[in-house]
Amino acid sequence: MVQVLISGGTGLVGKALCNKLQAKAYDVAILSRHKNTNSPYKCFYWNPNEDKIDSEAIASSDYIIHLAGANIAEKRWTPQRKKIILESRIQSAKLIFDEVQKQQKNLKAFISASAVGYYGSITSEQIFSEGDKAANDFLGRTCQQWEEAANQFNELGIRTTILRTGLVLNKQGGALSKMIIPVKLGLASALGNGKQYLPWIHIDDLCEIYIKAIEDNTMKGAYNAVAPEHQTNLSFTQTLAQVLKKPFWFPNIPTFLIKSLLGEMSELLLTGSRISASKLLSTGFTYKFPKLDKALVNLLEKD
């Protein structure tokens, strides 16, 4: 049986991906900082801060999917928090790389998460594709170094795939569960000017992209893991209100208020550009939820 090792396997994407892989008869294992975890999957201990990893985790794996990293939207971006966000991604990838290199392990592929933040915290009319350069801001630099850590595996002759992900829609936690709260209260409103784009993807489609990255040997390099449909913050919120059968509230929530509450992290809500899905589509991947309204109905239809 083919074994897939997942870092970040207890997170939002990790849990859903583990379930889908198991359903497809893959042998699933996760890396965990807790030696006595209640996970239904095989667990191997690791601690990137202490440079520790169970060597058997690497020895027994055919594929590694690297999702580990501190939640970028969990806390305000203080200098210390920024350091944690960056180092949690770089150190963990380096630890895996060092062990793979030490064992001379011939992995079939190394697949890493990244984010559309690679293109920066801006709103423009440009449609960004994988060939565009990383932005010179916190998100851009973080994603660039994140991807550089993943691309080390190319040096070992291991097929390396990077998925730059947008907002993941999943009712079980994550951003959507927070976004629906004001809408259900009848207070749906756009943020800032509402013109910023909001690249998104349904959790099921994202998991299927990871599985395709395992099974399709031609998938190498970076791919934008976003839905092909472009939505602004305004149109996204309007669609969400419509699906939940709630009124859309005006005026917009002022930019200054969001910045005062969140500081620099407000960039996540107030900026955003269109991201191309053309490269992924060229692989033959078919989205189950290419349209936002259908994605939201699927996730929220029982509400």
From TrEMBL:
Task: Name the domain of life.
Answer: Bacteria
**Stretches assigned to the DUF1731 domain:** 253-298
**Belongs to which family?**
Belongs to the NAD(P)-dependent epimerase/dehydratase family. SDR39U1 subfamily.
What the entry lists under Gene3D superfamilies is as follows:
NAD(P)-binding Rossmann-like Domain
Instruction: Write out the coiled-coil annotation as residue ranges.
Output: none
UniProt domain NAD-dependent epimerase/dehydratase: residue ranges: 4-224
The record's NCBIfam families line, in alphabetical order, gives:
yfcH
What is the protein's given name? TIGR01777 family protein
